[in-house]
Each structure stands twice: as structure tokens, then as C-alpha cells.
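It is worth pausing here to work through a concrete case rather than discussing structure prediction in the abstract. The textbook approach is simple: state the sequence, then state the predicted structure, then interpret. We follow exactly that order.
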Amino acid sequence: MKQIHSSIVHIVDVDNDFNNPVIADALITDKIDTPLMVMVADCSPILFYDNNKNVIAVAHAGRQGAFKNIIYNVIKSFQNNFDSNLEDIYVSIGASIGVCCYEVGLEIYNEAKKINLEFAIKKKDNKYYLNISKILLSQLNDCNINRKNIDISEDCNCCKNNKYFSYRAEGTTGRFSGVILLK
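Step two, the predicted structure:
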């Protein structure tokens, strides 16, 4: 997919291929042997799996995806398009920039406050730091995904940029990916 920092979810079908990527930030499918991939360099790569309906999804969630609640759109797609039950959905959130490194300006703080996400802002030394993982966990909770079905990396890819790519740490950088496949 061509990722654009949106909350768009695309259902992958037989007409989709690597040569003509869709414009979206989440993909979902029940097709066997159809890998789904999300690319990131500070944003959160999120993998979803419904072990009952055999449905998978990936999502790209940085600040904009979290603020636009891409999580909600993915979960609704599971329910509305594949008749998934919430208790059957498992979620894995990979390494991303942590609150320790994600400094944001006053305008982002005000935007978070306006959409009731102020809880994810840490203030330190007159600076603001955003905790995307905290938002994503809250949104999964709001969608009634069981906490025991959620795995989240505690790695900050900016702090560990010797192990992961980080746009904040490196400027021009590569990407790492999250990939999921139904067999």
C-alpha cells in the first residue's frame, strides 16, 4: 500500500498486487497466501489476526493514524466485512518511537487536548512528549479488544536506532516492516 498517514482501511482482493499499490494505511484480508505488509521508521506497525474467521490485517499508525483512530476503522472492518467477534482478534504492535524521544510542539499538544488525547502527552522541562502506544492501547480498549490478546513492543526505535530505522534519529533512513500471512 502507499501509506499516507490516514485512517483508510482497504480490503485486499484478487485485483490487488504490488505493481498498483492502493492508497491506504491499513490492509485487511481473508485470502490465503496473500502477505500483508506495513512499512515504518518511527510509526507503529500493527498486525491483527482473527483466529476464528481466519482474517488478518496490518496498520500503519503514527501520530496522524492514532489521532484519526485507525484502530477503530480496522476493528470495524473485521466486524462489518468478516463478521469477526472481538474476543477472537489478536493484536501485535511493533517497535515505534517512544514517549522518551517523541517531542512535539504546542500545536500538537493542543490538537491532542482538543480530541481528548491529552492523557498521552507527557510534559517535561516545558516540552511536550507524545506517547502513541498509550493512545493505541486506549483505542484497542475502547474497541473492547481483550488486553490478554494484545502484545506491544516496549522498544523505542529512536533510542535503539542501531537495531531499528528511525526517521527522528537519522533523518534520511530506511524502513522496517511488519508482515503477516495466512497459510
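Step three, interpretation. Residues 70-82 form the longest helix (13 residues). The domain at 9-97+136-180 is CATH 3.60.140.10 (CNF1/YfiH-like putative cysteine hydrolases).
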